[in-house]
Amino acid sequence: MTFSPSSAIDFRSDTVTRPDSVMRRAMAEAEVDDNVIGTDPTIAALERRSAELLGMPAALWTPSGTMANLIALSVHLQRGDRFLAPRGAHVLTNELGSAAWLAGGMPDPLEHDAGPGRPTPETLSAAIGAPGGPYYALRTSLLCLENTHNAAGGAITPPDEHAQLLAVAKQAGLTVHLDGARLWHAAVALGVPPAALTVGVDSVSACFSKGLGAPVGSVLAGSPEFIEKARRMRQMLGGGVRQGGVLAAACLVALDRVDELAESHENAARLAAGLTELGWAVNAPETNIVLAAAPDLPGRLKWLEELGIRALPMAGRVRFVLHRDLSAADIEETLHRVKTGG
């Protein structure tokens, strides 16, 4: 059976959502001014609210999460500095090498020996190595964490493990940046405020377009001094926008919907259970991402596309991402198509 594009069920990402009428109205009615000059009131309101939610003194709106991370690394690193991140982290595999090319850092991955997406404190300590050393040795200055870890299936780093990693990093004198693109998901799944997952970090990024429905936008938060430097770097990278309040208004509406992410988590668990019953090998999702093993990954993706089920590859597996535009009925229809082959 061939399915029309209009009947496709889209699991490619939680970024494929479209702003609803409430969000579009907020965008249309947003109070705006020139954000490069620094007088857009809606962006300012978003930055204040985001900083408070993330437990940071200050925040900066950015057009994308990739730019937010690049700004953070550019501020934190000196050229040639080594930085550590869990293997498969977005800053290592999905940002086109900008951490090395533009921020000037030497990336080094950490294995997931504490669980999906998470290194143990011992692994981190061994990677940092002993202090001192000859002048020509690599200088390790930054730890980059990711919560949730996308390529590990939306895996969460809980507060106690976060604290242990922070303790090792700080003891060694490292700066810590947290890629919290889906931090809202982790907070909802754990039933804690987002700020409980940022304790001790020097900077954190978070995204408004991953599952929350906003069309554009991320935020970078940290100290006032860090944000002052970040604002200059954003301008250097072309991220200064003028009447950006139109976009920030959508982000403010998105923040009102964080608690609704729980529905995507429930749908992810429902999809994973159904696929398991059908003999698929899948992860037990902690948030909104289901990873399914496939011996012939291109073939499996093509077969799903023919069934009107859209998905993308991630870490050698089929990635299904649940989001606010997919309902429980969509999950049941997906499982029916997979079971019957159409």
Helix-strand layout with pairing:
Elements: E1 9-10, H1 21-28, H2 41-54, E2 58-62, H3 65-76, E3 82-86, H4 90-93, H5 98-101, E4 106-110, H6 121-128, E5 140-146, H7 159-171, E6 175-180, H8 183-190, E7 203-207, E8 218-222, H9 224-236, H10 245-255, H11 261-277, E9 289-292, H12 297-306, E10 309-310, E11 312-314, E12 317-321, H13 328-340
Parallel strand pairs: 1-10, 3-4, 3-5, 5-6, 6-7
Antiparallel strand pairs: 2-8, 7-8, 9-12, 11-12
Helix pairs in contact: 1-10, 2-10, 3-9, 6-7, 11-13
Order of helix and strand elements from N to C terminus = EHHEHEHHEHEHEHEEHHHEHEEEH
The largest sheet has its strands arranged as: 2-8-7-6-5-3-4
Structural class: alpha/beta
Percent strand: 15-25%
Terminal Cα separation, in Å? 6 Å
Largest sheet: 7 strands, mixed
Shape: globular
Quaternary status: single chain
Q: Would you report the number of β strands? A: 12
Unreliable stretches (pLDDT < 50, length at least 5) are none
**CA gyration radius, whole angstroms:** 20 Å
Report the average pLDDT across residues: 95
Annotation field: number of helices = 13
What's the helical proportion of residues?
25-40%
